[in-house]
């Protein structure tokens, strides 16, 4: 958390240095601060997980937006073409994500993706019940979600051993 505060401090200093307060100056200040902090990290003697977390969050945002676009096109194609290939089903997906924040993020990302909807999380928080629009192979759908969104969320939110 201290690294995040230091990065924000660098971004603010960057904006003051150039006397510009735009989104571009905020992003460029955060990027410069990130690389400066990464370079001086060995001098501090403490290895921070901040740098990997930032990378995993960027990866999550980019890949989720890609999934969002692909799923939207797939649903639109099914709506506007005369042949419907949707095969809706209720699918139970075992969860590897452990934290409340991780479960919340996985369920919301799945619900935001066209063609899938999170229905319920089991009481023991180990199974997520989903409604899937294209469930020709429910196991393939589960595998895709686990290797995709759930993995990205675990990387971004949860501590790794």
Write the layout of secondary structure elements.
Elements: H1 2-18, H2 23-44, H3 50-80, E1 89-94, H4 100-112, E2 116-121, E3 127-132, H5 138-157
Helix pairs in contact: 1-2, 3-5, 4-5
Transmembrane segments: 12-40, 60-81
InterPro entries: Cation_antiport_E
Family: Belongs to the CPA3 antiporters (TC 2.A.63) subunit E family.
Structure description:
By secondary structure, the protein is mainly alpha-helical. It folds into two domains: 3-44, no CATH class; 58-157, no CATH class. The protein is 64% helix and 11% strand. The protein is built from five helices and three strands; from the N terminus they run H-H-H-E-H-E-E-H. A three-stranded antiparallel beta sheet has the order 1-3-2. Strand 2 (116-121) and strand 3 form a beta hairpin. Helix 3 (50-80) runs antiparallel to helix 5 (138-157) and helix 4 packs across helix 5. It is elongated, with a radius of gyration of 20 Å. The two termini are 18 Å apart. The model has no long low-confidence stretch (mean pLDDT 91). This is Sodium:proton antiporter. Keywords: Cell membrane, Membrane, Plasmid, Transmembrane, Transmembrane helix. Its main location: membrane. One of its GO terms (molecular function) is monoatomic cation transmembrane transporter activity. One of its GO terms (cellular component) is plasma membrane.
């Amino acid at each position: 958390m201290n690294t995040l505060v230091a990065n924000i401090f660098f971004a603010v200093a960057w904006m003051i240095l150039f006397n510009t307060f735009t989104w571009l100056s905020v992003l460029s200040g955060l990027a410069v601060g990130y690389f400066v902090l990464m370079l001086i990290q060995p001098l501090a003697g403490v290895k921070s997980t901040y740098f990997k977390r930032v990378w995993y969050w960027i990866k999550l945002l980019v890949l989720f937006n890609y999934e969002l676009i692909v799923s939207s096109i797939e649903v639109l194609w099914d709506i506007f073409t005369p042949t419907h290939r949707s095969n809706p089903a209720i699918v139970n997906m075992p969860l590897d994500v452990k934290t409340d924040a991780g479960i919340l993020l996985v369920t919301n990302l799945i619900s935001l993706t066209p063609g899938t909807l999170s229905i319920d999380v089991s009481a023991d928080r180990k199974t997520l019940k989903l409604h899937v629009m294209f469930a020709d192979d429910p196991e393939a759908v589960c595998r895709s979600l686990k290797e995709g969104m759930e993995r990205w969320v675990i990387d971004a939110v949860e501590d790794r051993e």
